[in-house]
Amino acid sequence: MPKNKGKGGKNRKRGKNEADDEKRELVFKEDGQEYAQVLRMLGNGRCEAMCIDGSKRLCHIRGKMHKKVWIAAGDIILVGLRDYQDDKADVIFKYMPDEARLLKAYGELPENIRLNEGIGGLDEEDEGAGDDYIEFEDEDIDKI
C-alpha cells in the first residue's frame, strides 16, 4: 500500500480559531448593503433573513465564510444587495453578539429588533410549559 503523503487530516484543515480572541473593528453598512437578522437556515449555504428595510430576502453565504463562520437563526448579519434581484442578497459579514449590541446602541439597528434570541424566542415555550401537567393537592388525590 502507498504511504500517506499528506500533512494531516480533517483537524489540521480546521486549524486553530484564534480570530475570536482578537477585538475586531466594527463594520458599518455602506451603500448597496443592509443589516439583516437571520430567520432560518435553509441549507446549501443559504438562509432566509429579514432586512432592516422590512423586506424578507433569500441570502447566499459567500464562499469565504462558508464552513468557516457559522450562522444560526437570530444572528445579525450584513448583506450585500443585488442590483438585478431585489429578493436575493449575499451575506458579507456576521456580527458577534457584542458587536450587534454596539450597533443597536449606535442607532444603526432599530430598537424593536431582538438580539441574542432565536426567532420565536423562548418566552412562548415557557408560558405553555405549565399546561402539560395538572397539579393536585393531597386532598384531591384522596377523592380520586
TrEMBL record:
Region listing for Disordered, in residue ranges: 1-25
Keyword line: Initiation factor, Protein biosynthesis
Sections of the chain in a coiled coil: none
SMART domains xrefs: eIF1a
Family annotation (Gene3D superfamilies): Nucleic acid-binding proteins (2.40.50.140)
CDD domains: S1_IF1A
Biased composition (Basic and acidic residues): 16-25
General function of this protein: Seems to be required for maximal rate of protein biosynthesis. Enhances ribosome dissociation into subunits and stabilizes the binding of the initiator Met-tRNA(I) to 40 S ribosomal subunits.
Name by which UniProt lists this protein: Eukaryotic translation initiation factor 4C
Annotated organism of origin: Canna indica (Indian-shot)
